[in-house]
Each structure stands twice: as structure tokens, then as C-alpha cells.
Amino acid sequence: MAIQPTALSPTQAHYMSGLTIEQFNGLFEKNISPEALASLAESAGNGSLESIDLLHNIALRQDNEGRKAENILFDLFSGKLPAKKGIDKEIQETSKKLYQLHLNTKIKKHLKDSKLTTPSKLLYIVGSAIEKVIDKISLTKLLMKNEPEESTLWDNNRMTTSDEIDSSNKNNPTLPSNMTINCSIGLMQNGYNLLADVIEQKILNNKTLDKCELFPININDNHWVLAVFYQPEHKQDMKCVVFNSYQNVSPEITNEIAKAAEKAGIIEKDITYIEGNIQQQVPNGCGLFVVEAIKQLTENTQQDPYDTLKEFQESFIKKTMAEQKEFNIQNRRQLYSNYHDSQYPSL
Q: How many beta carbons lie within 10 A of that of residue 57, not counting itself?
């Protein structure tokens, strides 16, 4: 289904999207110039349906150029790249049409191992556009491991998995050298305080926690919080701040966190909780908030972690209902993008 280059007149030197004739013809070469892809990304973001179609054609390629185009489409779709309002709907529609062509038995045999039949970001976009729940469940099983059968990847109230959180943290491009993002863990397991065990092991290896340590923690198998252990500037005593996007955790939980903090030499009065339900438009979004809180911390290293997290909470509360809903949709999409990249590294 790929578009083939055609002869253009001199007046078509900028055929579309700011592409020159050479750039347009270069779209069908083994290596596509970064300038051509950037031009397509910009024009697609501005609403060019031709550019969206071209990016889809390139994205079907099973090589690095195909992956680049696929990433551009997904970043526009997820809001990671700037785009005019409604572009995600246009991308959904084009992806859906491609998928419907795939279902046509006359060409299905030619797409046996295409990105429309194997795990891909394109297929995620397709899943977001189709309506039948049974089809969404089928695609979910293909796209993500260990997902509960009763949910789909596109449910706006789906719980975030530890794999998704860890994938996002691994892909964090701004991680400073004085900060460690630990793998997500459950606070308790079989009666044991896993957080305390991890901290104890770190101290045994390093004698102290010499970095700002971030711990995504799952409580009771149904809620994510972020615990941050750090040493404030110009102070000797370490502190702990716990970011919780929902209602206050129980005294039993605060007691277990205090036990873990004690392993790092932190007394209970130096543990601060930033709590409050900000999930009204982001149901079961605790994992999304943990990932975003980590992002805020890695981008604001000159500020006390407590201040950074408090400002994040307050700024989110001030967002409109529409903005909060958009956060829910876009961040869930970006979460899958990171998960996919971790499962299927670059070619």
C-alpha cells in the first residue's frame, strides 16, 4: 500500500509539508534525511493529512526509518510532540483504515509479519480507534504481557503496572548523577517490609544513602506512592517525603514506611506526606502521578524535593477539568510508548 514517488513540476518544488522534490523522492530511499522527517512531523502536527498518510506509509517499514516515522506518529498522537487539537483523531482514523485494509483477505497474506499484526505502536493507535471491546481485549493480549483479562490498554481507569513504571523511569533522559530511581516494589510481601530490606542492603553496600533515592512503592497491591529519601542542602540529617495522589494512607502504612526510613537514619518527625485526592479526572491514575512526580524531580534538581512535589500537586489542582482529562489520556499513551520501547529495543 506504499505511495510511490511521482514526477513533479517545478511549481511543485515544495510538494507538501515544505518538502523539496529531492526530499520527497528521498522518502523512498533506504535512509531518509532527518530534515525530511522533521518537515513531515511539523506539517502533520499542523494538520496535513497528506503528511499523516506519508508517515503511516513509512512507519510500516520494518527498519530504523520505519521506526522513526512510527515514533513521530505516536508522539503526535500522545501529545509528546506539539500538534494542533484533534490531530490524534486524524492519526487514529488513518491507522484504523490501514488496519481495515489488512483485514481484507486479498492482501492479508502480504502483511503476515507487518506492524498491523505484531506488537507495535501503530497497533496501539489502532486499538484506541476500534470500538468492539472483544477486539480491544484481543489486541491488549498481543501488545502487553500480564495484563488482566478484564481490562484493556485503552481503559482510562486502568491501574498502571510495575513494568510500565519501570520502563518510563529507564527512559528518563534527564536523570542527574546524584539521583537514583529504584525499581518499583511492593511495600510489604508475606509480612516482610521490602522497602526496609532494600534500604538496609543499600546501606550495607555503600555505608550510607549517598544519593537522592526515589522509590515507587505499591501499597496493598492497588495503589502507587512515591517515597523520596534525600539529604537537604547544608543539613546533615536525611529527610523523607512521600507523594500520594489519593487520600491519606492508613496508620499501618505510615508505620511501615517509618520502619524503612529508620534504616536510613531518618526519624519519624522528618518524614513528610504530600497527600490529597487529585485523581478525580484521572481514575486509578496513581501510577501516572508517580511517573510524573519522578519527572518533575529529575528536572528540578536545584530545588528541595518537598517543594518540587508540593508545587506539582498544587499546579495540577489548578488545571481545568479538561486539562486533567487530557493529562490522563496523553500520559497513559506515553506510558505505553515507553513500555513498548523497553520490550522492543531499536533495531
A: 19
8 Å CB contact between 259 and 251: no
The verdict on 180 and 120 lying in the same domain is no
188, β-bridge pairs: 193
For the chain, what is the domain count?
2
d(CA 307, CA 297): 10
Per residue in 209-268, pLDDT tens?
878 999 999 999 999 999 999 999 878 889 999 999 999 999 999 999 999 999 999 999
Q: Do 44 and 121 belong together in one domain?
A: yes
Q: Which of 56, 102, 212, 286 is catalytic?
A: 286
Over the stretch 112-151, which tens digit does the pLDDT of each residue have? 668 888 999 999 999 999 999 999 999 999 999 776 667 8
| 166/111 same-domain check | no
Identify whether residues 133 and 167 lie together within a single domain: no
Domain co-membership, 36 together with 112: yes
Per residue in 72-87, pLDDT tens? 999 999 999 999 999 9
Range of the domain at 185: 162-333
Tell me, what's the pLDDT at 7?
Answer: 36
Q: Is 234 a catalytic residue?
A: no
- Has 286 been annotated as catalytic? yes
Which of 140, 155, 170 is at the close of a domain?
155
In degrees rounded to 5, what are phi and psi of residue 241? Answer: -125, 135
Distance of CA 152 to the CA centre of its chain: 16
- Are 177 and 98 in a shared domain? no
Q: Which of 56, 102, 223, 340 is catalytic?
A: 223
Taking a C-beta distance cutoff of 8 angstroms, is the pair 158, 282 a contact? Answer: no
Same domain, 221 and 115: no
Residue 113 phi, psi dihedral angles, 5° rounding: -115, 30
User: How much of the chain exceeds pLDDT 90, in percent?
Assistant: 71
